[in-house]
Design a protein that fits this description.
By secondary structure, the chain is an alpha+beta fold. Helices cover about 45% and strands about 10% of the residues. The model has no long low-confidence stretch (mean pLDDT about 90). The protein contains eight helices and five strands.
Amino acid sequence: MAFQFDLEQTDHLLTTTRAVRKRLDLDRPVPTELIAECIRIATQAPAGSNIQRWRWMVVTDPAKKAGIAELYRKAYAPYIDMQREAVEKVGRSDAGRIMESSDHLANVLEKVPALLIPCQLGRLNPGQSNQEVSGYYGSIIPAVWSFMLAARSRGLGTAWTTLHLKYELEAADILGIPHSVTQVALTPVAYYTGDDFKVASRLPVEKIAYLNEWKNPL
């Protein structure tokens, strides 16, 4: 008989793993052993040809976190101005709350107990095909998501961010990462405050999933 998962628990984990920015506990240390446990689970994710080119940079040193946070904020200012302009045009009702939480994270990033920077050995060359780019990032993004799920199940909050990548080489020099290695993202890691997260509002499957032909509802 096949193993039966507790679907209620599994579905709760999958539907309530939120991007956590404002509810990060900045005062409670996160044991590196707990982060290592989450990474160990993440490395069970699929990787292209099972080559496992991923590497995981965990940053807890205050000076190094401050250096990364400075780069993040340098990229954040023009980005958030552009985002505010974009959401004003479309009139999203939840934009203010999202912007506020983004502002908060940018302001306190160096105070987050740990920053995780998932990396991939090698670099893409300019002009590589969509298939090659998809395969490259598809060999690490599932693992990062597995890390975020493992963290969530252990009471830790995370968020996928990429703004510091505008200054990737400067970040590499702060952390001693070879320039031949690609940084893929940055996620803050902290215990989250509060009890739980709710299921988010999403478009119905009938509007976004098609069967056999574009726009033919599933």
